[in-house]
Amino acid sequence: MRQIEQLLGVTSKTAAATGSTSTTSSAGQVVFSVPGTLGMQSNAAPLVTFANAVTPSGLVALLKVAAIGAAVSAQLMVAGVSYATLTIPAGQTQVSIPGAGAIAANALVTLNLISVGTTFPGSGLSVILQGVS
């Protein structure tokens, strides 16, 4: 698990120092990264908590290579409860949705992959929490 002590002013150097694939930036974003070919799984990205409560303004999901045959769905969980589900339709590489409310301080944030493409599952997923200041 990784504690993010400051949301603003923290750069990707934090992730490089810890070896994590979740990062923050001075723009107020947290990125959950799932490299490689996708498969359905729980806790697909490193676990994250926030030192202070945050309210993301939006969420974006991006794929390096689009899924074929079915959509890719990623579920962001906060303290074991579904916070938001992002579904990227087959053949597409991104989707955006508005934020789904506040995330409490010290709540465990996880990412689950709940569906992937059937002919090709897709690869290189990034889920971005935007505006977490």
Notes on the structure:
The protein is mainly beta and 133 residues long. The chain contains one helix and ten strands; from the N terminus they run E-H-E-E-E-E-E-E-E-E-E. The protein has one domain (2-130): Jelly Rolls (Sandwich), CATH 2.60.120. It has one helix at residues 13-18, and strands spanning 2-4, 23-24, 30-37, 48-50, 58-65, 72-78, 81-88, 94-98, 109-115, 123-130. A hairpin with a 2-residue loop joins strand 6 (72-78) and strand 7 (81-88). It is elongated and about 40 Å long. The chain starts with a strand and ends with a strand. The model is unreliable at 1-27 (pLDDT under 50).
Number of strands: 10
The tally of domains stands at 1
* CATH class annotation: Mainly Beta
Give the uncertain stretches in residue-range form.
Answer: 1-27
Order of helices and strands: EHEEEEEEEEE
Question: In short, what is this structure?
Answer:
With 133 residues, the chain is mainly β. The protein contains one helix and ten strands, in the order βαβββββββββ. It has one domain (2-130): Jelly Rolls, CATH 2.60.120.
